[in-house]
Design brief:
Elements: E1 8-12, H1 16-28, E2 33-37, H2 40-49, E3 54-58, H3 66-74, E4 86-90, H4 95-104, E5 108-111, H5 116-128, E6 133-135, E7 140-142, H6 164-173
Parallel strand pairs: 1-2, 1-3, 3-4, 4-5
Antiparallel strand pairs: 6-7
């Protein structure tokens, strides 16, 4: 299994076992350069000076919030990797956590335990099917919307109130 254009990956995980699992998966995918960090400060320092094609990280860590690291990365405070896809590997898969990760600027999420095929699929999705990057006052990262939804009619935006059909259509968008 080759990842072709993914040549430099940073793995950031405080758990030695999972860091080694991900490292060995990346080697089996023929990724030529894999850098590992177990601590927040080390990962932040590496990101300030090196560019990567992909960053793989776990949710939990010591010395700072993982999502703060992603927010700082996306806001340009950690060097040249602002656009770099970030793949979150996590055993914390509650809906609220998924929303937090998405809203912090995570590109993709893969649930632990990680299978080789899931990892490869998420790596490819992160790197080769990148979503448009959004920068605004409150958010910086891949577009959180994953699908296009057609407008119901041309007058939809000008309506003061919505009828039941419009309400039902909006509710279906979030399913």
């Amino acid at each position: 299994m080759s990842t072709t254009a993914i040549e430099k990956v940073l793995i950031f995980d405080t758990d030695n076992f999972y860091r080694r699992v991900i490292y060995n998966l990346l080697l089996s995918f023929e990724v030529p350069a894999v850098v590992q960090a177990a601590e927040y400060s080390k990962a932040a320092n590496i990101l300030k000076i090196k560019s990567f094609d992909l960053i793989v990280m776990d949710w939990d860590m010591d010395g700072g919030s993982r999502l703060d690291l992603v927010k700082n990365l996306r806001n340009g405070k950690l060097g040249p990797n602002i656009w770099t896809p970030v793949l979150l590997c996590s055993a914390h898969n509650r809906k609220s956590r998924i929303y937090q990760a998405r809203d912090a600027g995570i590109s993709e999420i893969v649930a632990k335990p990680v299978s080789p095929q899931q990892m490869l699929d998420k790596m490819r999705a992160s790197c080769f099917r990148m979503r448009r990057f959004v920068r605004s006052e409150n958010f910086s990262g891949p577009d959180r919307r994953r699908r296009s939804v057609a407008y119901l009619d041309e007058d939809r935006r000008s309506k003061v109130s919505m009828d039941q059909d419009d309400i039902d259509a909006v509710m279906r968008e979030s399913e």
